């Protein structure tokens, strides 16, 4: 039999001596790159004056349809903002459609395809900027890039959970923290690159796109080729043989084709959707809330936005790691109970004029928003097992797409209705916060109904072994460490962590410095 190809799943089965702590930085290398999707708004204003550079070329009769094909009018920010919507529509849909393929093909192939789509989409968007054709930008960045987002987002989930069955939350929290931090790391260099490339004839966006695409491609390919999967039957040293009732963890697996038939999937779908809907609602109005309620300047509000971004990122690691100790269900109970209290108390803090209490409440809320994303893959693995967790996670991300519509629509329409009714601007958000708290009440109820699955849903050991079999396995493998997974911070692992840790630390420092500077000016 010929040897498997370079991207084949059998090619990346770990061998004795491999250190499992090399896998998280590989996942971070991909997530930090695709996380720049959150920071694409840094390009909107420059692109809105891309024709004349120094002043906009406005067309009063411009519509969204004509904006897609015009070459003589500047785009509006609202036209460009649809790319952001396309990002997450195609992230969720591609993750749901091709989650099963990711499981079968392995994380390396999925990571390579993600790199080609994400970076290739940016290159196509570059052509759209040069030709001044918005439809090409939508197709490149939004559609092709969005597919890359979905495949890159779910590519490490199953792998990390299988490598860290003893620390599922921490492992997925590290990777998904990278997705939240991608904009924090990517936006400042993007702004500096646009300044560097700016000329009287160009706003510097297309040149910046090409540089970012090249950098991201190198990092993402390094991450993809850094992936390894454990051999069938591998387990870390000291892993308990059975699950504990406290954490509600199964050691068996449900087949992907039966997952949607279980009520547990839809309950967890509702848990994620409601938690994310409430969080997105706060993210969308955080800056105007601070300005309208407390009279803060736009600069201070920008610093506030940076601060909640840090809590969003830090919450992904903190809450997911905590879930390893208290269990996933208890962690979501905490999100909902604490969230309900903070959402309902926020209007009181606003009316009392306590800006510090208001800011602290929103920061904790946003930490739980990020923590919800990071904890959900481990929750799925606890309930459905690890065999298809990546594909199941991909299907569950449709809850994110739904929340992306519910949260902003609820907040924006209620705000406009309150203003139209003559409610003072300082109070227009009160009803919104109470409504978001009500969403969390329903999320709390859904979480309460999540129970372990009945035995009839799980595959037999023979069925799982058949799914895990590969040509290089001559005989069934019994559980053991096989000399794989152990190892501390050796040189190779230290270099891998430095490669992803250094830019993350720099991004945190920049964001924190800006937030502290802006708040010191406000004081």
Proportion of residues in helical segments = 55-70%
Q: Average pLDDT, to the nearest integer?
A: 86
**Cα shape:** globular
Low-confidence stretches are 471-476
CATH architecture of the largest domain: Up-down Bundle
Q: What is the first-to-last residue Cα distance?
A: 71 Å
Strand content: under 5%
Number of strands: 0
Say which CATH homologous superfamily of the largest domain is assigned.
MFS general substrate transporter like domains
Overall description:
- The chain has helices at residues 23-34, 44-47, 64-67, 77-105, 107-131, 134-154, 157-163, 168-197, 205-226, 256-259, 263-294, 298-326, 328-351, 355-384, 389-396, 398-420, 430-448, 461-468, 491-522.
- With 523 residues, the chain is mainly alpha-helical.
- It has 2 domains: 7-57 and 64-236 and 488-511, MFS general substrate transporter like domains (Growth Hormone, Chain: A), CATH 1.20.1250.20; 245-469, Growth Hormone, Chain: A (Up-down Bundle), CATH 1.20.1250.20.
- The protein is globular.
Question: What keywords describe this structure?
Answer:
69% helix, mainly alpha, 2 domains, Growth Hormone, Chain: A, 19 helices, 523 residues
Topology:
Blueprint: H1 23-34, H2 44-47, H3 64-67, H4 77-105, H5 107-131, H6 134-154, H7 157-163, H8 168-197, H9 205-226, H10 256-259, H11 263-294, H12 298-326, H13 328-351, H14 355-384, H15 389-396, H16 398-420, H17 430-448, H18 461-468, H19 491-522
Helix pairs in contact: 1-8, 1-9, 1-19, 4-5, 4-6, 4-15, 4-16, 5-6, 5-9, 7-8, 7-15, 8-9, 8-12, 8-14, 8-19, 11-12, 11-13, 11-14, 11-16, 11-17, 12-13, 12-14, 12-19, 13-14, 13-17, 14-15
